[in-house]
Structure formats: structure tokens, C-alpha cells
Amino acid sequence: MATSVVLFTRDLRLHDHPPLRAALDRSDAVVPLFVRDRAVDAAGFAAPNRLALLADCLRDLDSGLRDRGGRLVVRSGDLVEEVCAVAGEAEADEVHLAA
Q1: How many domains would you assign to the chain?
Q2: Could you tell me the CATH number of the domain that includes residue 89?
Q3: CA separation, residue 54 to residues 30, 61, 90 (Å)
Q4: pLDDT tens track, the chain, 99 positions
Q5: Taking the model in full, what pTM does it have?
Q6: Residue numbers of the domain that contains 16
């Protein structure tokens, strides 16, 4: 059984999402993932209103995934380390993300 991780970054939507479509076409199981990178947070780019919007968007994305039988995995830490960790935990064959 093939498993893919789909890394959601700026494109927090289910419709018109090429990496998600590719993962669904190529895999039996898909693990949707969002990583909140602590280095980005530490740089001070995220104002409180932007963080609130992000939280709302992540809740909406998770709700849409749950409606379809899935769920959003949310991690916090180094992006590469967290993607590798989730891929390892899921025994994923592929990781899909938007360029």
C-alpha cells in the first residue's frame, strides 16, 4: 500500500491543489501535514492578526479533511525534520508539496 505525505504551506485549501491531487492519484493513503516552523516564528514576521487568520485557515482545512475521512497533522519545529519524521512515522513512499 503506497502512502504519501502532502505538505500544506501557503495553499491551505482542498480544491485546486495539485500536490494533493497527485498524492490521491498515486497513493492508497494520504497524510496531510502542516508544519509551523519555529525559525519563521522567531524571525518576528507573524503579527497576532496573521496568526489568528492562520489558525482559522488550519481549522477550516482540518474540518474539510475530516468531512472526507481524514485529518490534518500539525507539527511545530524545523520544517525538514518534521516532514522527515512524519514521513517516517507514516512509512510514506512520497512527499508532495507545492513549489
Answers
A1: 1
A2: 3.40.50.620
A3: 22, 10, 25
A4: 799 999 999 899 999 999 999 999 999 999 999 999 887 777 777 778 888 899 999 999 999 999 999 999 999 999 999 999 999 999 999 999 997
A5: 0.91
A6: 3-97
